[in-house]
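Appendix C: a fully annotated inverse folding record. The material below is reproduced so that readers can follow the format used throughout the book. The structure is listed first as tokens, followed by the designed sequence.
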């Protein structure tokens, strides 16, 4: 079993490992992209070499001058690119430093929140022990329990009576003669008929034994109504006794200063939420910067594209194409040597570009996984799975899940589902089912966990309504 804080640390470690993998792939893409550009620059040098072999011709002089101008333009583009890339990396480093600062503050703030939660939990345990020893409180709890039992018993009895009316009443409701006489109020003062109709109705009534049937059906309808009224009266009494018991719980908490401790927990939680908001802002900024850095690393930035396209365009100029073709036609070995190098570079360039495509695809997959894992980290904190008392039932489950997720075996939805299934909360010192908390209507005994109090209390003790646990306090169970 590991704590929620440790599980969050495992997520952070996995993120750091995944980001390191992205950096390694980016470096490979950068080196490959720079190699493509270097190959093109080397091609430009060999074009110059070919032109110098035939430097006696005016056209070749023009080729050399044009290539020199192109190279100067490419160098200028690359200098601008280096400056922009360096500035981008500086921004990413500064953002990372800010995020690390916020993370350190978060760890400190989380510790303060845990301490505040523990203070409430301990204070509630003391208050519950005092109430357990108070005869007047015990008497009120007994009255509330008895009233609740009676109200539930009456409600169950009324429900069974209503079911019986529904079942037994169908025979009467499906008899058209009985229904006819019932709807005309036959046999009651409200019945209004004379002459032949009265005589015929009487014949029908005697034929089907309506007098006894009407009395039975009337009782069948009357009993559930009376039981509903009785159950409603008992529920009113039970609600009153419960309200009195809860008032005593609230009063005891107030007398022991627990509301002030609750306020401290709320303040510490707000401070933690504020830090989380700042971290999320840094993470959004980091994701944007990483995307831009990835574009530079992959050679997809504007300056690199311009440099590569400019050289490629230059190599397609008529003068250079003719120069290369002429070199292939001449019998001179100097020409053949230069052209051979150029052909080898063409092959290497094509292979490198194909490798870049594969690396870019892998880089996108890694980045998508990191983005998803970062969102899981946000959801983990939003659900407060790193709060005090939060644990995961298997020491190895979280690292294993994260490893499978980064390997592409698990998707984000499945990872989150399994994390939720293995997350639990430890039992607290105070008992959330103590006193008025044992009636299934929420609890004032939240152990400093705020809105999570009812949920965590129920999970920690297998649900409300039982007895025992939490320091031996009765839960007023059975409801």
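Designed amino acids, in order:
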């Amino acid at each position: 079993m590991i704590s929620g804080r440790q599980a969050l640390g495992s997520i952070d470690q996995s993120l750091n490992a995944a980001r390191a993998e992205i950096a390694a792939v980016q470096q490979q893409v950068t080196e490959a992209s720079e190699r493509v550009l270097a190959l093109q620059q080397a091609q430009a040098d060999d074009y110059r070499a070919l032109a110098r072999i035939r430097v006696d011709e005016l056209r070749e002089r023009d080729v050399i001058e044009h290539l020199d101008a192109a190279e100067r333009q490419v160098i200028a583009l690359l200098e601008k690119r280096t400056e922009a890339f360096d500035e981008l990396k500086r921004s990413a480093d500064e953002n990372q430093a800010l995020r690390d600062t916020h993370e350190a503050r978060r760890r400190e703030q989380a510790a303060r929140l845990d301490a505040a939660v523990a203070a409430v939990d301990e204070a509630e345990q003391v208050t519950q022990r005092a109430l357990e020893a108070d005869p007047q409180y015990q008497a009120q709890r007994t009255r509330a329990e008895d009233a609740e039992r009676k109200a539930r018993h009456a409600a169950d009895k009324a429900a069974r009576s209503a079911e019986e009316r529904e079942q037994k009443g169908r025979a009467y409701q499906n008899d058209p003669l009985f229904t006819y006489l019932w709807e005309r109020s036959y046999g009651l003062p409200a019945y209004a008929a004379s002459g032949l109709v009265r005589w015929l109705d009487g014949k029908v009534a005697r034929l089907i034994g309506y007098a006894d049937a009407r009395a039975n059906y009337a009782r069948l309808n009357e009993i559930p109504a009376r039981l509903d009224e009785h159950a409603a009266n008992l529920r009113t009494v039970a609600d009153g006794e419960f309200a009195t018991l809860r008032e005593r719980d609230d009063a005891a908490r107030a007398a022991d200063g627990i509301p002030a401790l609750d306020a401290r927990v709320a303040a510490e939680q707000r401070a933690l939420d504020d830090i989380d908001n700042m971290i999320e802002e840094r993470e959004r900024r980091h994701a944007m910067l990483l995307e831009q850095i990835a574009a530079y690393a992959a050679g997809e930035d504007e300056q690199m594209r311009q440099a590569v396209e400019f050289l490629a365009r230059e190599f397609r100029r008529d003068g250079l194409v003719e120069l290369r073709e002429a070199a292939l036609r001449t019998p001179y070995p100097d020409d053949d040597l230069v052209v051979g190098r150029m052909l080898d570079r063409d092959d290497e360039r094509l292979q490198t570009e194909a490798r870049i495509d594969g690396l870019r695809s892998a880089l996108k997959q890694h980045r998508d996984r990191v983005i998803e894992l970062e969102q899981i980290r946000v959801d983990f904190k939003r659900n407060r799975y790193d709060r005090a008392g939060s644990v995961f039932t298997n020491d190895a489950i979280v690292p294993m899940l994260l490893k499978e997720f980064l390997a592409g075996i698990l998707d984000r939805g499945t990872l989150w589902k399994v994390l939720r299934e293995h997350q639990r909360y430890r039992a607290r010192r105070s008992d959330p089912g103590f006193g008025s908390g044992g009636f299934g209507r929420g609890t004032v005994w939240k152990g400093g966990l705020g809105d999570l109090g009812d949920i965590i209390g129920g999970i920690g003790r297998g649900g409300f309504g039982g007895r025992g646990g939490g320091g031996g306090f009765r839960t007023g169970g059975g409801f």
